[in-house]
Amino acid sequence: MKIIYSFLSILLLILLLLPNFVSDYILGIFVLIFFYAYMGQSWNVLTGYAGPISLGHSLYLGIGAYISTKLAMSFGVTPWIGMWVGGLGAALVGLAIGFLGFRFGLKGVYFVLLTIAFGEIGRLTVLHLKPLGHMMGLFVDFKPGFVNFHFRGNLPYYYIALGFVVFSLIVVRALEVSKWGRYFVALREDEDAAESLGVNVFKYKMIAIGISSFMTALGGTFYANYIFYLHPTSVMSMWVSIEIIMRPIIGGLGTPFGPLIGSFLLTPLSEIARSYFTKAGLEGIHIVIYGLLLIAAVLFFPGGIFAFIKKIVKPILGESKEI
Amino acid sequence: MKKKMNRRTFLKYSAAVGATTAIAGVPTLLRAQAPEIKIASIQPVTGVLSDIGISMRRGNQMAVDDINAKGGIKSMGGAKLRLLLGDSEAKEDVARSEAERVIKDGATCLVGPFLSGNAMTIATLCEQRGVPFVMDVAAADDITRKGFKYTFRVFATTSKFADSMLFYMDKIMKEKNISKIRGVVTNTGDLFGRVQGATFIKALKDKKFPIEVLGHIEYPLGIQDLSAEISKIKALKPDVLFPVARPGDAKLMIRELYKQRVELQGIISPGSPGWYEPEFIRDMKALADFVMDNVPWYNPVGKMYKEVNSAFSKKFPGKYIDTNSGYAYLGVLVIADALERAKSTKPDDIVAALKKTYFKQDLMVGLAVSFDERGDNVNADTAMIQIIGQSIKVVLPEKAAEAKYIHPMPKQIWDRGV
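^ inputs. structure came back:
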């Protein structure tokens, strides 16, 4: 484990120093890497660790983004505070969905359908709410300043997004080694067996969805103040949920590093391929390459890339070393 | 002893020759070339709106090619424009990322991006980076109400749509000695339909306009049968129907008006895409005649339009300059005009020049491009188009008109021998 911590410390040091050597554009790519890694990690808490598959996480992203932005625009509340309110709002909604799903024992695809349905209800509701900009969307005022979470360069966004990633890693690692985390994994592996051993399935699933939706919503505030435009279709639709879950699936579900590895692979690939092919006037090819890579990842690394790395590294570190 | 040329010596000599050329030769060549100014086009070239995005990029690119063919930016030694390409995929985060990339690649000014949400993201980024941005198409009022210093818009705003509609209705009513119109407003239940319908009714009320709204009928998008709605309209006995429709329900509506023999003086849309789509006219034939629609449009009688459209059709067979590609072309012309006057590629100089823009054009309906303090083109306008003889004609404003509008309809829908 020491080796992993040393490696992570070095990586963190490199990432902290990186802005000295790269342009705003590259920093922008890293911001997206961190953002999607963080969102993936938030989803990972529920689906990767505890098991229930959610395809409606964009709902929590949207709730976080809209609540903190509306608080800032209408009541002058700084997004630094608004993000926690958004997080609580999303956690309440997450708990309500969880209550319906877990109380009535919805499993597998039925729980997936429930999350999709609530995601769509959320999207359609916002689409019809005038105070939230309905179909026109919410245009965020640009007021540069730390208090407003608005910055001119990408540097502050870079460090904030990096902070989000570190925060999520700490949360997940703390969960992993805690009693809760063990229960989560037990639920994921065999719910009936866990229950027969006295694990309160309902309670721990509720805890998982609460943490997951809360964390996702915090990311929503970051998105709103980085992109400056919120529309139900661009923050609350199904494709946003898919975008969120792609990284942990490719990187490795139920592992702390999976979402990070997935995001480090997929995000720059998509950016670089788009930039390269767009410059050459061959738009659309990058989407094909992205699709091919996803197929390849599923074919060759069915357990995620992290599992593959683990397999290679373990014999080198020795069987006894835990990663 | 004669030295043999082996691989190493060959490389050594090559390197020396290369270095000499690099130091002495290339700068001479560079000095001889006209400088190059990069501008960037960000459009939704892939994704759900790719047809529109491609058409708009073609508009941007053709304008750049035409300016270069005419000698580039003359005040800067004939500097040629180079268009950097960006693809927003119709997504905000991608639009931001692409805008960031083209700015890094040296774009002095950005143009695009069709979608208001993408426009907002790019406008904010341009404000952060201090790079001018000219929106070719994007209608949401809010973007330019954020107090941006670097953002300008050549397209009409949403509120302008309603204002122009009332202006044209006023003209028609005065010319035809109509003191009051009793109308029914219909719209699809999607949000576009709702907003258009509600904005029109609100504008009528706010301005106390002499159009009495007898009824406001809404139906779901994708409806298969409009018989009940048309019965309601028939019972209300309106003079004019003001429908906000898409191609599918536009066809249903006309068929049902025909079947139920609803007597109307006119069908005048406050602005919706259902009525000018080629498939609507093709399928409805004579039944489509005399429908009017209030939309941003190209100027069919303009000299510039004729030239640009003919070149565009030649370059892209089967395509023509429409509202989107037309504004995309105009956006680049406005940037080139600002560069010409600014004689500089410094952002603040370009912004200062853009603020003083008075760019005469007859490519699109509307007068010379000129920006107000918000950055909106005060002279951007919509046109009233009418289907006459199963083809679309601009009927108002008169300056751009191809034909005189026909109101009231000379023949009722059921009376056209179809």
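The radius of gyration of chain A is 20 Å. Chain A has a mean pLDDT of 92.
thumbs up if we can close this ticket
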